[in-house]
Specification:
2 helices, two-stranded antiparallel ribbon, single chain, Pnp Oxidase, Chain A, mainly beta
Amino acid sequence: MDTLNILNPDPPLNHRFGVFFFAGGRVPNPIDTRFQKVSGLSTSFQTESISEGGQNLYSHRLPTRAAYNNLVLERGLVVGSPLSMEFDAAFSLFRFAPSNVLVTLLGSQNEPLAAWMFIKAYPVGWALGALDASSPAVAINTLELAYSRFQTIHV
């Protein structure tokens, strides 16, 4: 049974979280921490089917490797931040500087409840929401990152 649920039977809410970029894998980026939405936190195993000689009713499905979805971050458009410059370098110059990204789910007192580290993340997608002269909404920027692997950080 999960220790978190023993101490707090209420499931955590999903609206308190932090995203932290570590340039070069070590130095935290203090500017690019506020995001409206984080998605793509999922993984699965690819499998290979192995047929057993003489067995026609089933085959054995064995795991071969992990497959990861891209990490997708949404926020209001920020011009000139280190993360924005990294995306600009990737899409303008085809220059990549992978960094580690920590996503942390926070409790009501901003205490970490769960955390995931995305290793060697790099830009693979960028989008800006529609510009609309009839609506005073914030311009939403979507940043998409691929990564080598992720690991759960026990907090």
